[in-house]
Amino acid sequence: MSFTQRRRWLLLALLPVAACTALSGREPVIVDVVGVEPLPSEGMEGRFLVKLRVQNPNEAPVEFNGVSVTLDVRGGRLATGVSDVRGAIPRFGETVIAVPVTIPVTAMLRQVLGFATGDRTRLDYELRGRLAGPAFGGVSFTSTGELTLPAGTAGSIP
Predict the structure, then answer these.
(1) Where are the beta strands (DSSP E) in 30-112?
(2) Rounded average pLDDT over 123-140
(3) pTM of this prediction exceeds 0.70
(4) How many C-beta atoms lie closer than 10 Å to residue 81's C-beta?
(5) What is the pLDDT of residues 37-73, one digit of tens each?
(6) First and final CA of the chain: distance in angstroms?
(7) Are 65 and 134 in contact (CB under 8 A)?
(8) What is the C-alpha to C-alpha distance for residues 158 and 156, in angstroms, rounded to an integer?
(9) How many helices (H) and strands (E) does the chain have?
(10) What is the pLDDT of residue 133?
(11) Residue 82: how many CB atoms within 10 A of its CB?
(12) Distance between CA atoms of 69 and 67, rounded to whole angstroms?
């Protein structure tokens, strides 16, 4: 079989995969942080349980068998976490997923120093993550926002 014939066969084999991807028209999932609870810490790190509300604006459910997240605050990485939680987000539905995250002491110090020298009332954040899925699976997500601290709180933080 010549190189040209092999290339044609390869293109024909990949055509259904490309067509399915192009026709899926899947909207990205919408993710918001809806809660943060402290967990027992180990050594020089902070541990928290972050609760995420995940909304599926699609006509098909999104199945997942794991989740990973990275939380950046003020442009720097603050926390990361993973969980082997399994489930499905129903079509045009939502679910809350809990993910334990770890904050290394270096990230805590960096945030304290940035807080002391910068704006003390506003914290910009970006949450990136992935819902692991079956087969070609997975759905990546990004969520950004701003946390505004009460005026009395900002003045009492060093």
Answers:
(1) 30-39, 45-56, 62-64, 67-73, 76-83, 87-89, 93-104
(2) 86
(3) yes
(4) 20
(5) 999 988 889 999 999 999 999 999 999 999 999 999 8
(6) 72
(7) yes
(8) 6
(9) 3, 9
(10) 87
(11) 16
(12) 7
Q: Which residues are within 8 A (CB) of 157 and not within 5 positions of it... i.e. 6 or more apart?
A: 115, 116, 120, 149
Task: Specify whether the CB–CB gap between 79 and 102 falls below 8 A.
Answer: yes
Q: Encoding tokens for residue 120?
A: 């003390």
Q: Kindly state the greatest CA–CA separation across the chain.
A: 76
Dump pLDDT digits (tens) for 78-110. Answer: 899 999 999 999 999 999 999 999 999 888 777
Q: Which of 83, 67, 69 is nearest to 125 (CA)?
A: 69
129's tokens:
């993550």
Q: Which two tokens stand for residue 2?
A: 């010549």
25: left (phi over 0), alpha (psi -120 to 50) or beta: left
* DSSP code, position 157: -
Structure tokens at 63: 């199945």
Token pair listed for 4: 């040209």
Q: Can you name the CATH fold of 26-156?
A: Immunoglobulin-like (2.60.40)
